[in-house]
């Protein structure tokens, strides 16, 4: 028997349509014009669907700007975008990634409130100092 592939939940897809002949260069962190005036289209799977935004691999898009269609492959969110819109949504993705990374390190128990160590930390520091003094005396 062949193994059946596990498929994740289909949250839909995003279609970006526009006259945006621009590409983002990650090394220089700038958008460059690729020339031409043809209309182009990106089709991206939805990674996360939140109450007010859609997250894809390239963009974080406001749900209110989407035209939502139902297809045989699930929901399709269509955006008509220009360069300023692309810059802003790509920036929102970077901001969201930074927030997620920041929250991963700021969990309860690891935080030191106001940058000051708590009582247990002081007890451990004093115990280490006493052990170091005893070690130097012997």
Name a few traits of the molecule.
138 residues, three-stranded antiparallel beta sheet, 30% helix, disordered N terminus
Structure overview:
The protein is α+β, with helices and mostly antiparallel strands and 138 residues long. The chain has one domain. 30% of the residues lie in helices and 29% in strands. The protein has two helices and nine strands; from the N terminus they run βββββββββαα. It has helices at 83-105, 119-137; strands at residues 13-18, 22-25, 30-33, 40-45, 48-49, 53-55, 60-62, 67-71, 74-80. The strands form three sheets. Strands 4-1-9-8 form a four-stranded mixed β-sheet, with no helix packed on it. The chain has a three-stranded antiparallel β-sheet with strand order 5-6-7. A two-stranded antiparallel ribbon has the order 2-3. It is elongated.
What's the short version?
By secondary structure, the protein is α+β, with helices and mostly antiparallel strands. It has helices at 83-105, 119-137, and strands at 13-18, 22-25, 30-33, 40-45, 48-49, 53-55, 60-62, 67-71, 74-80.
- Proportion of beta-strand residues: 25-35%
Structural class determined from secondary elements: alpha+beta
- Topology, number of strands: 9
Distance between the termini: 72 Å
The string of secondary-structure elements, in order, is EEEEEEEEEHH
Could you give a short account of the major beta sheet? 4 strands, mixed
Number of helices: 2
Tally of separate domains: 1
Mean pLDDT, to the nearest integer, reads: 75
Considering DSSP H and I runs of 4 or more, what fraction of the residues is helical?
25-40%
Residue runs with pLDDT of under 50 for 5 or more positions: 1-6
> Taking Cα atoms only, what radius of gyration do you get, to the nearest Å?
25 Å
* Order of strands, widest sheet: 4-1-9-8
3D shape: elongated
